[in-house]
Structure formats: structure tokens, C-alpha cells
Write a structure and sequence with these properties.
There is one protein chain. This protein has helices spanning 12-25, 33-42, 49-61, 107-120, 136-140; strands at residues 7-8, 45-46, 65-69, 76-80, 91-95, 101-104, 130-133. By secondary structure, it is an alpha/beta fold. Strands 6-5-7 form a 3-stranded mixed sheet, with no helix packed on it. The chain has a two-stranded parallel ribbon with strand order 1-2.
């Protein structure tokens, strides 16, 4: 018989540490609060969902993580920002097949963003810009 021991984290500092570690370790993925809870449980740690939400707000305010709202829903996803990167300065590519989120800097997009502002008076919020499609790995596997 396999016994699983789950540590219940009630200390906010420890919860913050564990959640930030998860998000910083997987900066190519987005997680919902529920997925974070599931990841914690799989790792033997249980953090109350209310603590997870409070912790996510805490890190978002400090620009250590990025919050994305899924289009046409009220569902929020969170992603760790890689150390030394500023997500407000580049755009993102999200794979519809595997869910991977790629941080991109591209001269062609920089020119496009500049064109939008100079020619159309529209300032694009790069930190909120996400292009959805299929990554090269999934295309190689036969994804759409």
C-alpha cells in the first residue's frame, strides 16, 4: 500500500515561496489557480485556494508574474516572468495544441508596433499581446 503525505501550508511566506518557485520554474506555461493547486497537491503540498489567489495578486502587483485573461471567458491564467525579462516589452506566442507560451522579441513586430502608433495613433500593450497558433514542435507532430 502506497502512503501519500500531504503537507498543508498555512504560512503565507512558505506558500508564496512554493507558488513562485512553480511559476518561475515553468515560465513557458500558464497556470490557472486551480492548476497551481493541483500541481501543489501532486508535489505533496496543499495550499488553500484562497491563499493561492491572494499570492497570485501579491506577485502580480510586484510584476513577478503575468496575468492573462483567456479571450471570451473570465478565466485567468498566470505565468512566471523569466528573471531579467520584462513582459511589457515583448509579445507572446501561445500554442493552442500544447499550451506552451513563448516570449518573443522580433524586429518585424517592432516595426509593426511602431507603424500602428505612428500611422494609426494606436499604442499596443505588448505585455498583453498574445498570438495564438501552433508551435513548431506540435506542427512536426502533426498539429494544426
Amino acid at each position: 500500500m502506497k502512503m501519500i503525505i500531504i503537507l498543508i501550508v498555512r504560512n503565507n511566506t512558505k506558500a508564496r515561496e512554493v507558488i513562485l518557485n512553480l511559476l518561475q520554474t515553468h515560465t513557458d506555461r500558464q497556470f490557472t489557480a486551480e492548476e497551481i493547486a493541483d500541481e501543489m497537491i501532486a508535489g505533496g503540498v496543499r495550499i488553500p485556494i484562497a491563499t493561492i489567489y491572494r499570492t497570485l495578486v501579491f506577485f502580480e502587483e510586484r510584476k513577478q508574474i503575468k496575468k492573462f485573461v483567456v479571450p471570451n471567458s473570465n478565466r485567468a491564467c498566470y505565468q512566471g516572468i523569466p528573471k531579467g525579462r520584462d513582459c511589457s516589452k515583448h509579445y507572446h506566442l501561445k500554442c493552442n495544441t500544447c499550451g506552451k507560451l513563448l516570449h518573443q522579441d522580433c524586429d518585424a513586430m517592432t516595426a509593426f508596433i511602431s507603424h500602428m502608433e505612428n500611422e494609426h495613433g494606436f499604442v499596443v500593450d505588448l505585455g498583453q499581446t498574445v498570438f495564438y497558433g501552433t508551435c513548431v514542435e506540435c506542427r512536426k507532430k502533426g498539429g494544426k
